[in-house]
Design brief:
This protein is of the alpha+beta class. The chain contains one helix and five strands; from the N terminus they run H-E-E-E-E-E. Strands 4-3-2-1-5 form a five-stranded antiparallel β-sheet, with helices on one face. A hairpin with a 4-residue loop joins strand 1 and strand 2. The longest helix is centred in the N-terminal third of the chain and has 23 residues.
């Protein structure tokens, strides 16, 4: 039981470190997905917030807390 708990704890810690690293390296031009499922492109990344362009045609931009970013979407490899 103890060994299982140790593996579970290390896995959770690794996921937290990976997410923190992803949030720390956000930069202009990254395609992202928010926790709410909104897709967009990073326009500006500050310490605690990120400005994201969500619509090209109307130039709509939304400001998010950095913690609301779920993942950086990798461009398809050709």
């Amino acid at each position: 039981m103890l060994i299982f708990y140790v593996f579970l704890l290390r896995s959770k810690k690794g996921q937290e470190n990976k997410r923190k690293g992803m949030l720390d390296t956000l930069k202009r031009g990254d395609r992202i997905k928010t926790i709410g499922g909104i897709l967009g492109t990073v326009i500006e990344a500050k310490d605690d917030e990120v400005l994201v362009k969500v619509d090209e045609s109307s130039n709509t931009k939304i400001r998010f807390a950095r913690s609301a970013i779920h993942q950086v979407i990798e461009p398809p490899k050709t």
